Amino acid sequence: MIVTHPWLSEIAPRLYCQTFPKLVDNDAELDVFLEALEALVDAQRGPFAWVVMADALMQSSAKQRKTFAAAEARMKEQDARFCAGTAFVLTSAIARGAVTAVYWLSPPVYPYAIRSTREAAIAWATEQLGQRDDEVGQSSQRAGDRSPR
Predict the structure, then answer these.
(1) Residue 148, pLDDT score
(2) Which candidate, 41, 48, 37, places its Cα nearest to that of 8?
(3) CA-angle at 79, arms to 75 and 84, nearest 5°
(4) How far apart are CA 11 and CA 123, in angstroms?
(5) What is the DSSP letter of 116?
(6) CA–CA distances in Å: residue 48 to residues 31, 34, 38, 59, 71
């Protein structure tokens, strides 16, 4: 999959990373990112996972957080089908608490974890992706096993 925004990268096949700048200078910049993010999610035809370097998100404005929420809602169906999980990298206890509170009030349609290092987040996301691959493989085998006994 071709990644088309500097805040997005591919760590491994179907394992993507979102890395935000310290400050998103304007809303148009965020809109361009979210357009690229939604296109990447829409293009998925099987399990995928995320690592989100999220400390900088704590600097976003209320309007920007609302814009993120709207994008999350638009991607909900595709995420429910294919997102194996999202691992947030948060070094601040306050940031970890904020994400936990938001997701407690409005749970995502995918598994998530909060980790303090990129390496730990990659390990968790890779494990989730493997589990989803196993589930999809087992489901495909069951669907294909239509032979009479």
Answers:
(1) 43
(2) 37
(3) 155
(4) 11
(5) S
(6) 22, 17, 13, 27, 18
Contacts of 16 (CB under 8 A, 6+ apart): 3, 8, 9, 10, 40, 48, 49, 50, 51
Sequence-distant (≥ 6) Cβ neighbours of residue 93 within 8 angstroms? none
pLDDT for 138 equals: 64
Tokens 């096949």 locate to 13
Residue found under tokens 């296109």: 39
Stated pTM of the model: 0.85
Give me the pLDDT at residue 146, please.
Answer: 47
Which stretches of the chain score pLDDT less than 70? Answer: 1, 138-149
